[in-house]
Amino acid sequence: GELRVGVLGVGRIGRMHAELLHRQVGGARVSRIHDAYAPAAAAVGTQLGVAVSDSTAALLAADDVDAVAICTSTDTHVELIVAAAQAGKAIFCEKPISLDLAEMDRALAAVEAAGVPFQIGFNRRFDPAHASVRAAVVDGTVGDPQIVRISSRDPEPPPLEYVRHSGGIFLDMTIHDFDMARFVTGSEVVSVSAQGALRIRPEFAEAGDVDTAVVTLQHENGCLTTIDNSRQAAYGYDQRVEVHGSRGMAASEDPRAHTGIVRTAAGEHAPSLPHFFVDRYTVAYLAQWQAFVAALRDGRTPPVTAADGRAPLAIGLAAGRSLRERRPVSLA
Amino acid sequence: GELRVGVLGVGRIGRMHAELLHRQVGGARVSRIHDAYAPAAAAVGTQLGVAVSDSTAALLAADDVDAVAICTSTDTHVELIVAAAQAGKAIFCEKPISLDLAEMDRALAAVEAAGVPFQIGFNRRFDPAHASVRAAVVDGTVGDPQIVRISSRDPEPPPLEYVRHSGGIFLDMTIHDFDMARFVTGSEVVSVSAQGALRIRPEFAEAGDVDTAVVTLQHENGCLTTIDNSRQAAYGYDQRVEVHGSRGMAASEDPRAHTGIVRTAAGEHAPSLPHFFVDRYTVAYLAQWQAFVAALRDGRTPPVTAADGRAPLAIGLAAGRSLRERRPVSLA
Amino acid sequence: GELRVGVLGVGRIGRMHAELLHRQVGGARVSRIHDAYAPAAAAVGTQLGVAVSDSTAALLAADDVDAVAICTSTDTHVELIVAAAQAGKAIFCEKPISLDLAEMDRALAAVEAAGVPFQIGFNRRFDPAHASVRAAVVDGTVGDPQIVRISSRDPEPPPLEYVRHSGGIFLDMTIHDFDMARFVTGSEVVSVSAQGALRIRPEFAEAGDVDTAVVTLQHENGCLTTIDNSRQAAYGYDQRVEVHGSRGMAASEDPRAHTGIVRTAAGEHAPSLPHFFVDRYTVAYLAQWQAFVAALRDGRTPPVTAADGRAPLAIGLAAGRSLRERRPVSLA
Amino acid sequence: GELRVGVLGVGRIGRMHAELLHRQVGGARVSRIHDAYAPAAAAVGTQLGVAVSDSTAALLAADDVDAVAICTSTDTHVELIVAAAQAGKAIFCEKPISLDLAEMDRALAAVEAAGVPFQIGFNRRFDPAHASVRAAVVDGTVGDPQIVRISSRDPEPPPLEYVRHSGGIFLDMTIHDFDMARFVTGSEVVSVSAQGALRIRPEFAEAGDVDTAVVTLQHENGCLTTIDNSRQAAYGYDQRVEVHGSRGMAASEDPRAHTGIVRTAAGEHAPSLPHFFVDRYTVAYLAQWQAFVAALRDGRTPPVTAADGRAPLAIGLAAGRSLRERRPVSLA
Prior knowledge:
The first copy, chain A, has 332 residues and is of the alpha/beta class. Chain A contains eleven helices and 15 strands. In chain A, the strands form three sheets. The first copy, chain A, has a seven-stranded mixed sheet, covered by helices on one side. In chain A, α4 (77-86) runs parallel beside α5, α5 packs antiparallel against α11 and α9 crosses α11. The longest helix of chain A has 22 residues, at 277-298. The first copy, chain A, is globular and about 60 Å long. β12 of chain C pairs antiparallel with β13 of chain D.
């Protein structure tokens, strides 16, 4: 039968997951939702026509929940993973699992002890363009990876209050790029060198954070990755990956808002990039769910594992140290 | 309150409309559906959680239907428009209204007599790229339109049986391009010169049809439009529009399936175009409904009118005559 | 030894040919030049360090002239071809050979009688992008050609005085496109349907000419070609060719002036197209000479033949008749 | 009158300069050449029709030499600059001036003492696309520069013997990118962090060199630059620059060999990049000479100064130290 998913947390991202899952993913439906803020749960429950549980515990105890989607704030992820694992549910968890390695390990140990399927929400792996870059490495077209370039820029910086609890740019934003570097090369990261600056929001200094960063990674296989991040790209949500190898290169370019152009004596004009991450990654979010559902249906390990959730956190913490200590930091 | 729409016909296109309307269009919902094939209606009713009416008459008589979406086969459109108009419902009708001008006029007269809002489903006008071409004409960027180029190619030819009842390539396929030519230039067509060939499906000769065509239009304002059609583009669904004017040009290019590329010594490789019209035009179908709902909410005339439904049929009939008589044909 | 070329006419185009030939084409050099306007000949002779002949006859009689490049005004081409053929020289002649079929046939008969190598200057065949389109037809990638689209737009209209003696847009401008249609399809043209308008220079009416045109060709193999021309593209020199076939399509896109772009919140901006035909086609002009020199060296027939010079004139004359008589015209 | 240039060294690069200068740069001509290998000098002298001097001293003593182009091997540059300066000649020198800062300073002191015009051959500044990136910074379109990305890849690695005397990848190859980073930002570099690997030619280890590198620069104005280099890009000569600023971004993309494309069911295919630096940068080399000639004519300082020659060497030496010592290195 269909996979019945209980969604924990229906804020902006949780609601998006619930809608996608319930309406567009074959073989699955949302059976229950819960949110600490009851009116939000009620609204989404009505909209989708699904049951609302009064508590996390009630949702986890329900018979009609095969898997849970953890879409709450980061600081609750570990407890929810532990509880869901003990309840024997398959788990999808939004990234990051935690900002603390020991806490994360506690969660992952619970998953392992329970033997439940687990997938971490690195949605960009499922973007068709980024996935085509990985595919060109896997099938040998690119050859042995030598240099990876990743650009990742948000259209607007978050508020200072958000930044204070975000773990800093490397855990909040670059973490996606650390995952991408591992994904496209298929090789672990052995050292990190980070540089950062405050060029956009000087007030982020209060949170000890930067808004502009360049990070260099060395991989186990000798590949070098350069990542550049900005909290504000005036022209839209800029997300590009390039792998250069012994035989060629593969890249994912930015989509434009549409394909219309204008040419005059002043030159050619095309529209800017989509500004919102959902516009860019809807197809990826959908494919992410399809992969989770298919893995559970077929009894396979979901494609983005607990180890994939842990490694980027370790890299991100090392990047923070590298920035503070102005030196490369090894991951051992 | 919300606009309550009754959907008549839930085959492939009707079901797509029902899903989009019900789930993604703010301010509207599907309140009832009907299909002559009861199991189809039942399936969609269950899926969306909406009521199924046993007959067209029942649907038109229901209190909770403010507007109807006519998504049945072309030969039923006129009768349904007349009935819906007499029932005082706002009407959205899939193109074409009819393959016969007199019949079409009967339908449009009923609409006018009833004074109900009416919109014809030329969805491509709502594609952001094609719409940007029109916008560049309206805002003067392109200047006075002089030449329009329209390419329109399907990835796969329809079956011969479909072709027999389609009215021929000019009424079935080029009709969208005739609408586009009027839309981007803002000028009526005064003469048509058509050439065609059978290059893909020789058996279409049995239906008196061609599968490859080039049509030239002269507009009232002196602009020339060239349209080329193919029933089979091996590389995907190819849909492009270009307007050249006194100050510049505007064009809608084809989107690729995704933005990944590969470069090797053999050159650069990018993915092909989407193959299915829904992949290309989902955003347009959605925007089409949003425009209909907004027009009704605000008491404005819907943006694609009865006259917009009629003119392309007249052009298409003239194109057929031009092809048969091997000469330009005037529309007077 | 090197091929020694005598250049007849060193106006703008002749001087360009002389410079390219003398400085950049291996295996050839300009040995003599002549121009009816002596100061022009003297200037180019000094610049290149080559001998100046006082008359055409003197140049044709010189021992150090193996081939001639005829770059004078169109109305002198036939006499010069006849004289050069009788002098036993290999001949390169700028297009068009003549505006009159009987005159052209007289020239071509002289060439045939003398048995001298002859090449007509349809330079666009040697553009790497257009040549790649032809190559994709020849090697089967595109499959059987079904539709060809050719756009050809000049950045600025010529003066009325020039237009009066040009033979009209079809013989002056579209003639390149008629050649391209034959080149990329490898198939002769059997009928022509032309439409035109005056949208840019109303005064061209005095010369009986149009400045905007759409022409449809039917080829022997069933392929349809649509050509659109404008005497004025505000955004530069627009020259594109597309062949659609049973397996795919091949196209030559417009180059931009350079590859720099800018992205802001207002969108993406790229430079316009080159405005001058020499900027666009220098590589083609060079390759054209290399092909001529190589053919003579190897004893092969030069790649653009007398027949290739004749056919586009016949098509152009038929296009003029089609425009005047408002009907398709057959070439029989 | 015309600027008379004496060319010292007519190997591959010197010959290219001589041909461009003599034939395509208005207001200048090559008056004399010299090469230690007499047959090379004789061949080029004959080809261009210019005098050959027997020695550097003879060329520098000649009355008909206003300026010299130093195109010999790097180890001779300093002596030739000193001698030319003392002879009162304007100087164009190929990069790098020297691999040693003290030696370079000796040369630059001689230039300053003599008060002669001096230009260093960072040709990429004159590429229209890279120049458009700089222009978008200067005119404020990009806003305050925050991140610069530079990719620079050669199609083929040089022989080991060349590498032994090249000063290493940072002085031989990245030096262009260090110049570009200063050029597009208009800001000096204050620290360098380099990482490198041997992924293409393991034998370069014998020369203590790497073939793959990622370098991060910090600029005085707070901007971060990331540079990635490879000695071998299978798909051609890859040279791209991007500046991201507070208002937008500007980038120079790679040109393709030509603009032809093919689309089939397998996707879209386009040609690879030009493989040879002369193919990519001919226009830049020409513009470089035009700028030198114009500056001398108008009595202005040539646009790429002695300081522009020195700074990239200092950055390159610091990059080498950073790589060896595995830490960021400051330039003070």
